[in-house]
Write a structure and sequence with these properties.
- By secondary structure, the chain is an alpha/beta fold.
- The chain folds into two domains: 11-180, Rossmann fold (3-Layer(aba) Sandwich), CATH 3.40.50; 186-387, Dehydroquinate synthase-like, alpha domain (Up-down Bundle), CATH 1.20.1090.10.
- Helix content is 45%, strand content 11%.
- The chain has 14 helices and eight strands.
- Strands 1-8-5-4-2-3 form a six-stranded parallel β-sheet, sandwiched between helices. A two-stranded antiparallel ribbon has the order 6-7.
- The radius of gyration is 20 Å and the shape is globular.
- 48% of the residues are buried.
- The protein binds 5,6-dihydroxy-NADP and zinc ion.
- 5,6-dihydroxy-NADP (NZQ) binds next to helix 2, helix 5, strand 6 and helix 6.
Amino acid sequence: MYNFNFYNPTRIFFGKEQLGKIDKFVPADARVLITFGGGSAKKSGLIDKVKTVLGSRTVFEFGGIEPNPRYETLMKAVEVVRSEKIDFILAVGGGSVIDGTKFISLASFYNGDCSDLLKFGFMPIPLDVVSKVVPFGTVLTLPATGSEMNHGAVISFEHGKFAVMCELAFPKFSILDPTITFTLPKIQVANGVIDTFVHTTEQYITFPVDARIQDRMAEGILQTLIEIGEITIAEQENYDARANLVWSSTMALNGIIGTGVPQDWTTHMIGHELTALFGIDHGQTLAIIYPAVLEVRREKKRAKLLQYAERVWHITSGTEDEKIDLAIVKTREFFESLGIKTHLSEYGVTKDKIPVIVEQLKAHGLTALSETQDLNLEISQKILEIAF
Ligand code: NZQ
Ligand code: ZN
């Protein structure tokens, strides 16, 4: 196991009827900005409930944070924070609203051009660049990204999606009430299952470092998703199934399973380009790319693929290659069982776009991906051809 440094200060309130906790953890005299998306949280009455809990505090609203939140939209919220002297933000939404709120929180006290904050990628923004932020909490409405308990955000700017990490970007608290997610369209639930699955595998199917706890936690999340995936899509109000999805999503990307192990974010990096270029949902991009990554990288990932085949899919007979083949087939079939297509061509993208995607990877400096950093543009091209 590698050395690691683990820090996660986010307080979690999980379960039914937890909204009231907001009252205790938002300062009584705060000037609060509620951030939300395109309207689902208004329509469901959630924003009104949140405002009721906030009681006599001075409350402002900023709606319209779009999926794959855009820098320009978020900067409008930064203006509101600055002009209204907001001192607490409450994000009510999915990954996009929470990520957007992290950016608003980081940018509000930044004196320079805020697009500077998009240039650090996976390197955390140093605390001498951003030393003061607006504290924020979240009410999660979509289980998928883990953003409710991590310090990362993904922001759309010009023609790309940019990772932003900062130790000051952890939510102060997150309310995880599975019943709040019952209003989700089935497609978003399926996207969430796949996002959670691939977050887990990108920290698990790499190469062994004898990290037994992390491996078994990852296997536990994957098995849970396989058990509840179809049920939580078919039975929108099945509390137990949804509760297990919500906690799986949070646990998959709150840092715990990624401690002390190699990580491979190839699928996410290529997937982000597909979203930026063609507007394909984040979860769908992962369903397209991941089976192809496993196929192309089967030798590099051989030991962990065999472990995955045996422990997650219980494949115990056949040669090593047959086990790996079957594990890849089962992964693709699982994504498809959730109603998500796994080929790029099924999303209206034509083959002549593959070089365009590769060019975008190059333009964004994504030329040495994977746990061994030897996944170059040629290999990305091959992955895209198989994913087609
Ligand atoms: O905007 P509204 O009207 O709220 O509708 C949203 C949106 O259209 C809807 N929705 C959310 N909760 C709902 C609901 N509809 C009905 N009932 C509810 N309870 O769902 C749609 C998608 O929402 P979005 O927030 O975009 O989805 P998700 O949570 O999947 O977030 C995706 C974003 O997160 C980033 C992705 O790149 C993408 O930008 N990621 C963030 C990560 C992180 N911070 O750690 C890691 C991930 O890998 C990911 O990259
Ligand atoms: Zn993701």
